[in-house]
Write a structure and sequence with these properties.
There is one protein chain. The chain has 255 residues and is an alpha+beta fold. The protein has five helices and 13 strands. The strands form three sheets. It has a six-stranded mixed sheet, with helices on one face. Strands 1-2-3-4-5 form a five-stranded mixed sheet, with no helix packed on it. A hairpin with a 2-residue loop joins strand 12 and strand 13.
Length: 255
Amino acid sequence: MNTTAFTDKINHAANTMVATFSEFAKLLDEATRPGRQQLLAIDEASVDAGALQLDAALLNAVPIVAAPVHCEFFALQGNGHRFVMGAGGLYLEVRREWLHFIHCIGPVENVAMPYGVVTAKCEMAFGRVGNALSQLRDFAVHSVAEAPNEAGGFVLWNSATDTWRIEYPEATATATSLTYTPVDPGENEHVVIDLHSHGSLPAFFSDTDDRDDAGSVKIAGVYGNVDTSSPTVCFRICVLGLTIPLTVPVARIFE
């Protein structure tokens, strides 16, 4: 075979391969388009390509999935969050190194949802908040020493060693206000509990606390009446705007 004939055969084979892959890509696009349209309520033929990429990236970052009816529910594995449509309505699922959280944020009562059952949960990798009791007591001593001014502190959990420590950030405080900077966790550390005190005032979560906690994933605690014989505490878990009260006995902290 001469060189020209051989080159023609190579070019023909290459062109055939390109055409085959182009046809395959076209068929794949047509086959997957209905699925994309189900995930995003769009007419893909008429949308801007750049806008579609942005919406697709957003969906990829925070997906919405359906709970299976016939298969086993597969929990979110990596850190992040997603929305799950289930038989009971819309659920928020959040994963952090220390937390796996599933909560119904949109219950449905009168419409039959054709999806699987989703079980709510709030599972903390370290077990319970009481495992940080030593640090919670340390903050009680600190808040009494700072009274009547407010005080702040962070309790960090080490996922590698299953140990705790408390850190007191630089703060500017008065009897009715507190500003302090976030702490920098060490290797394998996670800020789990955000604490502040109200000095002589009772423990409660203010509108300012609600704004500060919005969008975060943590446990928040407030100590009040710390310079009296009847101190008070309030705790809650904060998950991306949701707040759920936690029961933490004040007598255990202020023994």
